[in-house]
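Appendix B. Extra example for self-study. Work through it before the problem class; the solution is given directly after the inputs so you can check yourself.
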Amino acid sequence: MKRWGLILLALLVTVMAAHAASQSGAQTILQTPLNNAPYSDAAPVAQLPAGTNLTILERQGGWYHVRLDNGQDGWLQMTSIRMNGGGNTSNSGSGWGFGWLASLFESGRSGATGVTATTGVRGLNSGDIANAKPDPQATNEISTWAATPQQARQFAQQLGLKSEQVSYLPQTSGAQP
Amino acid sequence: MNARPPSEILHWRWPLLLMLALAACTSNGGLDLNGVFNTVKTVQQAVKPANLQEEEQIGYATASTLLGAAKPIDNPAVQDYVNKVGLWVAMHSSRPDLPWHFAVVDSNDIDAFAVPGGYVFVTRGLLLHMRSEAELAGALGHEISHVVLKQQLKALQKAAQLDLVGEVAQVELRQHGQNTQLFNSVANATRNLYSKGLDKQDEFEADRMGVVLAARAGYDPYGLVAVLQTLETVDPKSSSVQLLLATHPTPAARVARLSAEMTAGHMQRYGHQVEGVERYRQMIAKLVAAPATS
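Solution. Structure tokens for the complete assembly:
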């Protein structure tokens, strides 16, 4: 039983990696240079008009590594593009992520009360919050998962995370939405 | 920023005290000074800024109310992961020693919640819409900032005080060390606040501080911008973002504002920091495998 779980897990990771890399369509939203590196002073390899279709390969800081339909690749500032998805038939958002896996949680599950939800879709809307019945037991339960600072430090080290001195950002003025 | 001036709180205190004194006179057919004194003490406790113990009590009631709407998922590996990432980011805030508790809750909708006293909840739907640990660190950084700035705490206190005006003549009830009157007032305030949301300026402020906490923790700080860009791709009519969009500025407005602030603050210099795509993917595999193997 456990072995099948592990095989399934390995399979999922493979499928997820392939899926995550394959669906990442986007468009430029303004005229922008395509650079040969993720820096503003890098050499531009092309000038792209607004509305250029492209595929996102990876992100590094505030830059996306993209490929154009003609096969050319380069780096764009992340704010110069908009990912495809908004208003489309799919409502789970960009394929560049794991949102498509949400459907796995949408059928035949038992709720926390032991009652199988009829629709299988567990939402959380303002009505759910407005009518929430407090569950102190759940609050007590989550404290068992708390990490210690020592555990957090060790976990950070495993990924090569290093603490940095970074100042708070100044508020921009007049940028009302 | 829209800081709530303390004078706003002080102003209604004196007329209220007068009313209480009058109420004490009439109800007992004479002046019950002891009653007035006790009631005044209760009101004063309610209006002053919360100390740590009070913040934890308010947080407990708020957390319990939210967890009543969405239960924590039964997946210790994923809960452990989110607690370690979350605590590591929180340790780089100005309140590293709060009893930080993170939890993934059972909803496919995309959202996250900050609760006074150090509770942070994210939905499974949000986890599934992110691609890396840096993105998670950015989203948690935003929520941790709400806690650090005490934005929900102040809003809840203000709302719960208004409730106390009506309940002020009641005897304070204590059961099992819990102040049930406080618990119920906060639960009511929570239902209201978390279905309507904070001031929009508070959200921009949490974005601005959240990316700094992620950068301090060694992550690529643009993770939060990437999360917001992903949110832009979700159909705004979708039920999965109904609550999020009802309680926050639009993702487009947040991306525009945050990226301008990050450029002004020279955050590009931290853009090469850790992204953590692979470790995040392994966590997602555990999240997804759990219902399939159990």
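Self-check: Chain B touches chain A through 122 residues (CB under 8 Å). If your reasoning did not lead you there, revisit section 3.
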